[in-house]
Every structure is written in C-alpha cells, then in structure tokens.
Specification:
The structure holds two protein chains of two kinds.
Chain A: H1 2-17, H2 19-36, H3 38-41, H4 73-109, H5 111-125, H6 129-140, H7 144-171, H8 174-181, H9 186-222, H10 234-241, H11 250-277
Chain B: H1 2-9, H2 11-28, H3 33-38, H4 44-54, H5 60-72, E1 78-79, E2 84-85, H6 86-121, H7 126-140, H8 143-157, H9 169-199, H10 202-209, H11 214-251, H12 257-266, H13 270-298, H14 300-303
Antiparallel strand pairs in B: 1-2
Helix pairs in contact in B: 2-13, 6-7, 6-9, 6-11, 6-13, 7-9, 8-9, 8-11, 9-11, 10-11, 11-12, 11-13, 12-13
Classes of the chains: A mainly alpha, B mainly alpha.
C-alpha cells in the first residue's frame, strides 16, 4: 500500500514539474467531465431540431449556431464527446485485455506458444491501424460497436509486445525466483509479482492509445464507417459540415478543434507520464 | 548480403499471412459471398460461374490456395459495380495514391528532419520548445480535419488552389500538406531524440577535441549516425502515409485506392475491397523492406553480421 502511495505522490510531484503534462491532464479532465455530464450540460438534445434556425449563425439561443437540420451545434459537440470517450475507453480496454493475456502467455510460457503469439503480433502489425480497422468494420457492419471492437482488435499488439518483453525480463529476476522457491504458484507469480511491474508502461501506452483511438474513430466516422446518425460523433459531424463549408464554416471548425484538443491533451499527458513512469523508453 | 536474403525470404510468410487475413475478411463479411460477387442482379448462370471460378463449394483452405493461385496470375476478381476487373482498377488508382504518398513523405522529410536536428542541437532553447510543441500539435491534429481547414483557407477563402480533384500539381499541394504534417511532426521527434543520443557519444567528443568545426561535427559525424532510427521510422511511416491517404483521398475526392476502398465497402463491392486492402497492405510490407535495405547501407555493422 505504501509503495502505491509513494508511486502516486512521485507521479503527482513530477506532473507539477512538467506543466505540459498537467495542461494535458487538465484538458482531458475538462472533456471527461463534459462527456459524463453531457445530458445536463447540453442546452438541447442532440437530435432536437429547430426548424426556424437552419444553418443559423451563433446567437444567444444557439451559442455556436445550428447545422443543416437546425440542430444545436454546441449540444451536438457536447454529446459527441461521449462517443469519443466511450470508443476510446472500450477500444483501449479491449486492446489491453487481449494484449495482457497474449503477452503474458507468450512471455511466461515461452516455446511454441510464444512463437505463435509473436507471429500473430507480426501479422496484425504489418497492417496500418486504420487500414485494418476499416477492413474490420466492413465485416462487422458500420456502427459504434464495430468501431470499438475493430479498434481494440487492431491495437492489442502494441500492448502485447511490451507485456511480453517485460514478462520475459522479469521472469528471470531474483525476486521471482525467490517467490517460486517459496512455493508460489504460477498464477500467484504472474498476478502478484510480474504484472504489477508491467503496469507502468501499460499506463503510458493506454494514455497514448486513447489519443490514437479517438483519432481513428473520428476518421472512421468521417468515412461513414463509424457512428451512424442521428448519434453525433465529431468525425461524422465533420463529414456533414464539409458540405456547408461555405455557408457555415463553424460546422467544420468546431468538431475538428474538439478532436485536436482532446487528442493533444492525451498526447501531452502520455508524454509526461512516459518520462516519469517508463524508464526504458524515456530519453530525458 | 545474407541478412538481406533472409529479410527478403521472410517476406513470403508475412505476405501470405496478409493475404490470408484479407481473404478471411471477405469470407467473414456478412452475406453470401457468391451473391455479393454476383452483384445486384444475380442470374443462376452467373452464380454457377462464380461458384466454379472461386470454388465456393470447396473447403476453406482449398479456396485460399485457389485465391492465391489466381493472385499470382494477376487475377484479383471482377467488380460488378464498376464493370471492370479489379486489377484494372488498381492500375488506374495506384499512381494516384503513390503520387500523394510520395509527396507527403517528401514534405515530411523536408520539414521533419531539419526541425529535429535544430531542436537537438539547441536542446532546451525556445526554438526547441517551439518545435517540440508544434510537433506534438502536429501529431494530434487529424489529417482529414487539417485537409478541410486547408480547403477552407486556400480554396474557399483565398481561392488559390482547387478544393478537390486530381491531375495537376495544384491539386496535389493541399492533400500533400495535410498528409505530410503528422509524419513531419513524428519524424522531428524521432530525429531530435536520436540526435541527442548521438551527440553525447564519445566519438563526438573526440571529433570536437580534434578541433573540428562544430558544423562538421554535427552534420558529418552526428547526423549520419543519428539517421539510423529515423530511417526505420520513415519506412514504418510510409505505411501510415498510405493508410492516411485512404482518408485524405476521400476528403479531396482523389480517384485513388483509398477512395475505391471506401466506396467498395459502402457499396459492398467486396472484390474491390479485397483487392485494395491487399495492395495497400503489401505496399506497406514493401515499404518496411525498403527501409531495412536502406538501413543496411547506412549501417556497416549489419553487413558483417
């Protein structure tokens, strides 16, 4: 318990010294609060139409104006944050789960199992993320759930690779030998002694993975393969806004800026966390 | 040279694995593949012909070998929607995609490498901080949104460049900038950290101690060695560029492989989807191979392994 506490304090102290990381965390926090409390914060429901105001410019009633169906842009942005965060969290969750299981399996068991895991990593790795995600959503039928699953299934190798490497190196260490000689089971060795060591790089990767997932979901939705109407996603809002770039450029500015800010927040946070948590890849 | 031989041979299983994944994507897609191949108006004769040609009545592994043997003979199927063989569609769209990809990577190299070197040489200065903030911002901006913003600024407002289409150099500028920005950002980060790593080495201290001019030390001794990891990233990045061009081709209405791929998915024109996915994935594989070959020429240590 004490150890967790000091780890937590060290992180906090470090984040204070790295303002960019704190800034990133702040941005992420703001958007997260917006996503959680979207129904209370949004002035309108995302599908509410105001037929009196179609492609209206900003006004007191509609702070950012309305889209081609008279829907309030601000409200749709606020609701859209939910899509981004839920896709990010679930995709990263799936990616980490698969990555942890396969990575641990390969690294700990070794032999043929390990060779299979490595081959699987190599195959998925040889496809660029977005390309495989596009292919998978094609199988799964376009939609929010497909985007989440596809992203998780495409990104697990980055976690598996790191987990496998860490497990391989910790497997040989004295403290694991000691635990084994005291009669600890494999289960106990993995869960209590090895996996806690793996958590630091995973936290870093997960933070950067959120940024990646949100970007790819936006791209998928922009292409019409992600979230389907009327549910607002920043990506699909951009796709529709494009048609009105002359009359209502805000429809294109605002969702893109939201994506950029959230992704920037996660990236800044991930970079700062990497420096403090991950002694292997941080370059000082 | 042995290394290169092994490396090229190792492409064969990877290439087969890629083909298998793409093959399975078509087979797992919803709907009867025969009906999908037959298009909107299937006749019994057409269905029979497709079943015979693609061997859908055979076991899955046999179908896969049949697919590969068709592939080797350059037969990727027929797009009923476009009324053309897929290979013909690839021949038409590949140059469009390659043009954008190469322009993007050229831009990324031209901006990213100098920015990374300057950042490293003046590490900690305001130039470095500015460049590093620009680079993390560049990684965070979605390329397709940047494309839309460029369209707004240079096509809608200033009317300097066309907003979409393909053909002239003017049509290439905006998509290339949109595509190259994130890679430039990534390259500058890798270049910087690699350069910082090299600058601290003993041989750089020796070079300085010999009294060589700082310029010679940086550009002749450090840069050459610092390029190694950058080349690897560049190869990986060429793949991401191709993937990124899938989205950007749709933003800028360029008739490349990415646009065909997305239209194929939306119209459930699976032979096209399969062909485009396969070609794009194989190009990525070749790009990585190319990076490895360059690596060997840059790093004499590998050659004698």
């Amino acid at each position: 318990m004490q150890e967790t506490n000091s780890w937590y304090r060290r992180t906090l102290r470090y984040l204070k010294r790295r303002p960019s990381g704190t800034l990133g965390a702040g941005v992420v926090l703001v958007f997260m609060v917006v996503a959680i409390f979207a129904p209370y914060l949004a002035p309108y429901h995302y599908a509410d139409q105001d037929v009196e105001a179609i492609l209206a410019p900003p006004s007191p009633g509609h702070p950012l104006g309305t889209d081609e169906l008279g829907r309030d842009l601000l409200s749709r942005l606020i609701w859209g944050s939910r899509v981004s965060f839920s896709v990010g969290l679930i995709a990263v969750g799936i990616g980490i789960s698969v990555g942890l299981v396969l990575g641990t399996l390969g690294g700990y068991v070794g032999g043929l199992v390990d060779r299979l895991v490595v081959a699987l990593i190599d195959i998925v790795w040889s496809f660029p993320t977005i390309l495989l995600a596009i292919g998978l959503t094609a199988i799964l039928r376009p939609g929010l759930r497909s985007a989440m699953v596809a992203l998780g299934l495409v990104t697990w190798p980055q976690y598996a690779r790191v987990v496998r490497g860490q497990v391989l190196s910790y497997k040989q260490r004295e403290f694991v030998e000691a635990a084994r000689s005291m009669g600890a089971s494999n289960r106990r060795i993995i869960l209590r002694h090895i996996l806690p060591q793996v958590m630091s790089p995973i936290i870093v990767l997960a933070t950067l993975g959120m940024a990646q997932a949100i970007l790819v979901e936006a791209a998928l939705s922009y292409l019409g393969l992600g979230v389907q109407p009327p549910m607002p996603s920043w990506g699909s809002m951009l796709e529709r806004g494009r048609n009105y770039i002359y009359e209502a450029p805000l429809l294109t500015f605002a969702p893109g800026l939201s994506i950029t800010l959230v992704v920037l927040g996660f990236n800044l946070m991930g970079d700062a966390l990497r420096d403090v948590l991950d002694p292997y890849t941080s370059l000082r | 040279m042995r290394y290169l031989g092994t490396r090229i041979l190792s492409m064969i299983p990877v290439g087969l694995a890629i083909t298998l994944v793409v093959f399975l994507i078509l087979r797992l897609a919803p709907g009867d593949p025969v009906l999908l191949l037959a298009g909107p108006r299937p006749t019994p004769e057409l269905i029979e012909r497709i079943e015979r040609k693609w061997g859908f009545d055979r076991p899955l592994h046999e179908q896969f070998f049949r697919y590969v043997s068709h592939l080797i003979r350059g037969d990727l199927g027929y797009s009923v929607m476009q009324r053309r063989p897929v290979t013909e569609l690839i021949a038409l769209s590949l140059p469009v995609t390659l043009e954008l990809g190469l322009a993007g990577i050229g831009l990324a190299i031209a901006i990213g490498i100098p920015a990374g070197v300057v950042s490293a040489v003046r590490s900690g200065s305001w130039v470095d901080q500015l460049a590093m903030f620009a680079s993390i911002a560049g990684i965070s901006i979605p390329g397709f949104w940047l494309g839309l913003m460029l369209i707004y600024a240079f096509a809608v407002r200033l009317k300097w460049l066309p907003s979409s289409g393909y053909g002239t150099l003017q049509h290439l500028v905006l998509p290339a900038v949109a595509l190259g920005t994130s890679s430039a950002a990534l390259l500058s980060r890798v270049m910087r950290s690699s350069m910082l790593d090299v600058i601290r080495r003993d041989y750089i201290r020796t070079a300085r101690a010999k009294g060589l001019a700082e310029r010679v030390v940086i550009y002749k001794h450090a840069l050459k060695n610092a390029m190694l990891p950058v080349v690897t990233i560049l190869g990986l990045n060429l793949g991401y560029m191709l993937a990124g061009s899938v989205v950007l081709e749709n933003v800028f209405a360029r008739p490349g492989m990415g646009r065909l791929l997305i239209n194929g998915i939306l119209q459930r024109d699976y032979p096209v989807v399969q062909g485009m996915l396969l070609m794009l994935a194989l190009s990525v594989m070749l790009a990585n191979l190319l990076a490895d070959i360059t690596y060997v020429f840059l790093d004499p240590k590998i050659r004698f392994d």
